[in-house]
Structures
1.
Amino acid sequence: MTFKLYLDPGHGGKDRGASAYGLTEKQVTLLIADRIREIIEREYTDVNVRMSRENDTEVSVEERVRAANLWGADFFLSLHVDAGDGTGFEDCIFTKAGNGVETYRSTIHRAVLRATGWADRGKGKADFSELMKSGMPAVMTKNGSIETRADNTKLRSEMFIGKIARGHVNGLAAAFGLKKKKGTDQAGRFLVRVRARDLYYYGRPDWSARNGLVHKGQVFAVVRTLTVNQSKMYALNNGNYLTANENYVEKIL
């Protein structure tokens, strides 16, 4: 049976959400949602993903919930960013949610904290319409505080967005027993350290998809090795990719 995941990147269009230092919540939530969908569709089988918005458009909460209900989604994941002077990760479920939703939430909560290393701001309950009116289990995650300079800096990083997304995917996979596509984890997991002073990383398994730079001494978890245009590439736990050339990276575990 296909698992139907409804991703809800909060805000959009004229509704910017929280903002600080030139960054808006609506930008961040869409980046996280896009990366979650990318990882799941690439690595897992029998999963169908829809999003409440795929670009910078304004969609009412009522429309988001209605679309998820009409589709018959199995899980509603609403993505947000906090405001204020806090830091770290928190999430919430409907105040009258059952034990099943609590179990899903706890599994996702642990996985995101593990992937990001963020401070744990706790697990709450609230009567947000997204949680209250959805006809399926629903969780809202709050990924950092945009008004806190350290969190804001992280939320500008493609690498860190990848970590947030990977944490959500790992949690979803564990909570709902999602099945990996054949060959996606065949090489086992290990760590690599960057040997070069500066090294490009990639947003997808494509040598033209440069997303930015990593630096000497940084360590990353590898989930599989693949061949792209006759050259080896590492798929990282954060959803990005590095060259597997031993002149530039070295295995350390």
2.
Amino acid sequence: MLSIDAIPASVPGLRAARLTTDELRVGMKEFHAVVRIERGRSEWWVRGRVWTGGPGTIHLKQPGDVYRDVAHDGPVTYQAVALPESDLQRIRDEGKVVAHPHFKPGDERGLLFQRLHDAVAAGADRFTLEVAVAEAVEAFTVLRGATPDHTRPVRRAMAYLRERLGEVITLDDLSTHAGYDKFHLCRAFRAQIGMPPHAYLTHLRIARAKELLESGLRASEVATRVGFYDQSQLNRHFRRIVGTTPARFGNTRG
């Protein structure tokens, strides 16, 4: 069971929602988000380890993060805030990730993210929210890059896949670019990212397909632009990952 209730926000580009679920889900994040557990306890895997948290726990999510729920102690309620993409150019340009993505209640490093959530929950006015968003974005940049989460070959492989998602990619090409033999690369990639390179590439392609559909491109034009052989291959993966067809997804945003 998954229920999602949108929370009105007065800042353009800021999206917020309250989610309650008892399902164990697997996926890849497509945007920067700050999530706070409001009720219940949960365990989840991301970046090579299992994290656990209860009410007040802050979790930072970034594009490309693969997450896997491990366990819930009954239904868990989250408040999720997706930060405006227009404010995140510095983060995207540098291509780094937050060194520590998880903060327990009372951790001073998570204070600005807690303030953002409090402002959203209180229905704060636009100016108050704008300040809270700016401080949260700056906190993202301060936290990033202290210790790499992924080894250099895996980081190079991830960048290669992101930059060439519309092309035909071979494992030999990927391993050559990463500077690691293909057997060790596959093992390291799965261990650090949470899925093998081909599955990660599929998620990247679906994320790009969603962007194209939201921009107004017809579903029939999307497949080859994101590296799929044909429309049927796009439909199959899109339905599996998003839960609907590309055409229906595009129509709901037209």
